[in-house]
TrEMBL record:
It is an enzyme of class 5 (isomerase). It comes from the Eukaryota. Its cofactor is Mg(2+). Monomer. InterPro entries: A-D-PHexomutase_a/b/a-I (IPR005844), A-D-PHexomutase_a/b/a-I/II/III (IPR016055), A-D-PHexomutase_a/b/a-II (IPR005845), A-D-PHexomutase_a/b/a-III (IPR005846), A-D-PHexomutase_C_sf (IPR036900), Alpha-D-phosphohexomutase_SF (IPR005841), Phosphoglucosamine_mutase (IPR050060). It comes from Hibiscus trionum. The lineage of its organism: Eukaryota, Viridiplantae, Streptophyta, Embryophyta, Tracheophyta. It catalyses: O-phospho-L-seryl-[protein] + alpha-D-glucose 1-phosphate = alpha-D-glucose 1,6-bisphosphate + L-seryl-[protein]; alpha-D-glucose 1,6-bisphosphate + L-seryl-[protein] = O-phospho-L-seryl-[protein] + alpha-D-glucose 6-phosphate; alpha-D-glucose 1-phosphate = alpha-D-glucose 6-phosphate. This is phosphoglucomutase (alpha-D-glucose-1,6-bisphosphate-dependent). One of its GO terms (molecular function) is phosphomannomutase activity. Belongs to the phosphohexose mutase family. Its EC number is 5.4.2.2. Residues 96-239, 278-372, 377-478 form the Alpha-D-phosphohexomutase alpha/beta/alpha domain. SUPFAM superfamilies: Phosphoglucomutase, C-terminal domain (SSF55957), Phosphoglucomutase, first 3 domains (SSF53738).
């Protein structure tokens, strides 16, 4: 959590009391019941009639239909003074192919910029964008599904999104607590009983970021929206917000009935069917397996009761399944050391066959085998590559730029595939795999070290739950063939993966107020650093620049490699170093330090500390 928390004592105390007194994970429902939470309005508490994570009990998924409840938005209309914002302010909310901002006050230096009026304008802009894209007959109203993760600002923003969508003349379907992959799937499911397919979907989430943040991801049946689409929506939103300023903004009484659907049960049922189908239509193909889940108090708690248990697995020892937007146990992030330690300890203490961990909105995941070995980052990519290359021999595996040389050797020399190392950013990796297929190079897997992984067979959706389903399929097939050694079948698949003795990522920050920038943007300054490093490498016989590289400067030498690149969004140059020994890693670090020392606006303190003699 960045910044100093100065105003959140009351909410933290209330939330802890609420969690202890009112929250219980209902194993027969896709979402928990909680007591009413007070949303933030300028740092003060204000009660609403609908909880920020409350989901009314809904009929279970039975024979393909559900009774649909309705939610009537009945907020009182009142004029509200809103700050003046322009297009530049809105564009600052763009985070690649997502929108992210601060939704809750209380962290010093992080003023709220994702307010209800801003959110309503963004949703109305998406509605207008969708109408332009779909160009449907006027007789049919478009339909948008809305879901959210466990953040404490979720309900407040869901209400604002619903008003914005409805203001554009579109129907609104609220899913409540949901996962990002489920929201995309809602645009593909064909079942009118569940009001599917949706023409568009919005997921309210900020992934693993702190409790005060939130944001939006947008989908159509063609997939997630790209960077240009997000920019278009934000520019439209700025114009809509200008109308709010000119005409006065108020939270109007809404006559529309917003439907509420238990779609997560549909989504979970599809995952169960996928495992049963892969196992030869066995009802309980995971019977005899003990698998623990760590949802990190995000939206992934459903996986234990709704996926694993129907397949026959024992899930006792699973932890942090109940949604809690303060994330009191650990950051829901498969890359986080504390998170991986938590799931590893759960596996070992429960003598489980496998551990599964998700990020907040379940588009990323990782695993731990029965011995406590973590299957994340390069290991997860190696494991998924082994599974995919068994099914599609020789296919190309697309990854991000920070994957190891050992992974390349594993994919190409042991598995017989091709490793295409591309740029950071899950959308970049996915789009590159799609592009390769379009020009005749077969690719079935696009995956980042962060845990974002997308398969061609799953519509190129980065779905953490579906990645774990592929692992469950291997467990089930191994058991069916007579193997009784638990998750060893997974561990065996990554046997032979060369791993470095030292692997670090150091962040070299650019001081944007330093005079050395000389009027340049941080991006221009960062590009100058990279160009100077590249020039210095050219005359160094100890180092060799990568022949094929799509991001930053990647160099091999001293039994290892380094990559210096410019962050996608922040004034930072991340430096990744891997080597067969700490001493060799330091040698690589010294080469970088020597090359960039003249750039005074670059904070090299992390690098300087790393290369100091121990």
């Amino acid at each position: 959590m960045s910044g100093k928390v100065v105003q959140n004592v009351i909410i933290a105390q209330f939330y802890q009391q609420n969690r202890q007194l009112g929250m219980q994970y209902q194993r027969d429902c896709c979402a928990p019941y909680t007591r009413t939470l007070p949303p933030f309005h300028g740092g003060k508490l204000a009660w609403t009639s609908f909880s920020s994570m409350q989901m009314r009990s809904l009929p279970k998924y039975q024979s393909g239909f559900v009774n649909r409840g309705t939610f009537n938005c009945s907020a009182a209309s009142s004029a509200t003074a809103i700050p003046s914002l322009d297009k530049v302010d809105f564009l600052k909310l763009q985070n690649g192919s997502d929108i992210r901002g601060v939704a809750v006050s209380g962290v010093e230096g992080e003023p709220v910029n994702l307010t209800e009026p801003v959110t309503e304008a963004i949703a109305a802009a998406f509605a207008a964008w969708l109408l332009d894209k779909k160009k449907v007959d006027a007789s049919r109203k478009l339909r948008v599904s809305i879901g959210h993760d466990s953040r404490i600002s979720a309900q407040q923003l869901q209400d604002a999104v619903s008003r914005g969508i409805a203001s554009g003349g579109l129907d609104v379907v609220q899913y409540g607590l949901a996962s990002t992959p489920a929201m995309f799937n809602s645009t593909l499911t064909e079942d009118e009983a569940f009001l599917c397919p949706a023409d568009g979907a919005i997921m309210i989430t900020a992934s693993h970021l702190p409790y005060n943040r939130n944001g939006f991801k947008f989908f159509t049946n063609a997939g997630g929206l790209g960077k240009s689409d997000i920019k278009d929506i934000l520019e439209r939103a700025a114009n809509i917000y200008s109308d709010f300023l000119a005409k006065g903004y108020s939270v109007k009484n809404a006559s529309e009935s917003f439907k509420k659907v238990d779609y997560m049960t549909v989504y979970a049922s599809d995952l169960v069917k996928a495992v049963r189908k892969a196992a030869g239509n066995i009802e309980k193909p995971l019977e005899g397996f003990h698998i623990v889940v760590d949802a990190g108090n995000g939206a992934g708690g459903f996986f234990a009761a709704k996926v694993l248990e129907p397949l026959g697995a024992v899930t006792s020892g699973s932890q942090f399944l109940e949604p809690d937007g303060m994330f009191p146990n650990h950051i829901p992030n498969p890359e986080d050391k504390a998170a991986m330690k938590a799931i590893t300890e759960a596996v070992l203490s429960n003598k489980a066959d496998l551990g599964i961990i998700f990020d907040t909105d379940v588009d990323r995941s990782a695993a731990v085998d029965s011995s406590g070995r973590e299957l994340n980052r390069n290991r997860l990519i190696a494991l998924m590559s082994a599974i995919v290359l068994e099914e599609h021999p020789g296919t190309t595996i697309v990854t991000d730029s920070v994957t190891s040389d050992g992974l390349t050797s594993f994919i190409e020399k042991k598995l017989g595939g091709k490793h295409h190392r591309f740029k950071r950013g899950y959308k970049n990796v996915i789009d590159e795999a799609i592009r390769l297929n379009s020009v005749g190079e077969e690719s079935h897997l696009a995956i980042e070290t962060s845990g974002h992984g997308a398969l061609k067979e799953n519509h190129w959706l980065d779905d953490g739950a579906y990645l774990m389903v592929k692992l469950l399929n291997k467990l089930a097939s191994a058991r069916a063939s007579g193997r009784v050694d638990g998750s060893k079948v997974l561990t065996d698949l990554v046997d032979g993966l060369e791993e470095p003795a030292t692997a670090v990522e150091l962040r070299l920050k650019i001081n944007q107020s330093h005079p050395d920038l000389k009027g340049r943007s941080f991006r221009e300054y960062g590009e100058a650093v990279l160009q100077h490093l590249e020039n210095s490498i050219a005359s160094n016989t100890k180092l060799q620049k990568a022949h094929v590289n799509y991001e930053g400067v990647r160099v091999s030498g001293f039994g290892g490699w380094f990559l210096l690149r410019l962050s996608l969004h922040d004034p930072v140059l991340p430096l990744n170093i891997e080597a067969s020994s700490h001493e060799d890693a330091v040698k690589l670090g010294l080469e970088v330090a020597s090359a960039v020392k003249e750039f005074q606006a670059l904070d090299t303190s992390a690098l300087d500390k790393f290369v100091q003699p121990q």
